Amino acid sequence: MMSLLSFGADGWGRLILSAACTTLLLSLVALMIGAVVGSGVAAAKLSPQRWLRWLGEGYSVVFRGIPELLVIYLFYFGGSGLITLVGQMFGADGFIEAPPFLIGALAIGLISGSYQGEVYRAARLALAKGEVEAAVAIGMPRWRIAQRILLPQVVRYALPGMSNVWQMSLKDSALVSVTGIVELMRASQVAAGSTRDYFTFYLVGAACYLVLTLVSNHAFRRAESRLGRAWQSRTAAQH
């Protein structure tokens, strides 16, 4: 078993490690895309404009209601077909494949954004209205209110929910293996199929996902604890 997982010419350790890094990078990019999209979704749902609230709600319903794998298929194969069609209009020949990493990160990011929107909306609603009203009463500019009051507290309230969204994105990254990206799931499949040692490599893949989850959960808890202490210190100093 150890020889199969070694980093030598006959081992699969290097591929597994590289695939784990790809999985982590893909999940991080997807999380950042989701953060941008989720902020827009939350703002739309909190808007006084009815059509914006409908738009935000519609986005959440679509991307939370369609299976993640189907979204990836739609973006990857549909995107490749669209790129091929546009390329043929400009004289290109043959099938043009969409970038698998970019499409995978975008698909997972848009799915993540539908969940992050709910997290940010709930975090915004958890803020005490009196703090914002007091800032407006003393003439604080909107950008200062967002910088000093809204953003720090929304981040603090959103962190527990973001930990769950991160885990979801990390596990959804396994679905991107259908596009040919050699991430952790794909590497486990390749190694298991080549060696016929299915139990070993699927167990190693599961262990890698578990390690990534445990480490990231610890990082989220530390960040949550630090933000909580920083906000308490800041509140105490103001009083």
Could you walk me through the main structural features you see in this protein, from its secondary elements to its overall organization?
By secondary structure, the protein is mainly α. The protein is built from eight helices and no strands. The protein is flat.
Notable traits:
flat; 79% helix; 239 residues; single chain; 8 helices; mainly alpha
So how many helices? 8
Q: Can you summarize the main beta sheet?
A: none
Instruction: Specify the overall morphology.
Output: flat
C-alpha-based Rg, rounded: 22 Å
**Structure summary, number of beta strands:** 0
User: What is the H/E order?
Assistant: HHHHHHHH
The level of helicity is over 70%
**End-to-end C-alpha gap:** 62 Å
* Proportion of residues in extended strands: under 5%
Indicate the low-confidence ranges by residue numbers.
none
Main location: membrane
Subcellular location: Cell inner membrane; Cell membrane
Membrane topology: Multi-pass membrane protein
Keywords: Amino-acid transport, Cell inner membrane, Cell membrane, Membrane, Transmembrane, Transmembrane helix, Transport
How is the secondary structure organized here?
Layout: H1 13-45, H2 50-65, H3 68-89, H4 100-125, H5 129-137, H6 142-172, H7 184-195, H8 198-238
Helix pairs in contact: 1-2, 1-4, 1-6, 1-7, 2-4, 3-4, 4-6, 5-6, 6-8, 7-8
Write a concise synopsis of the structure shown:
It comes from Pantoea leporis. The protein has 239 residues and is mainly alpha-helical.
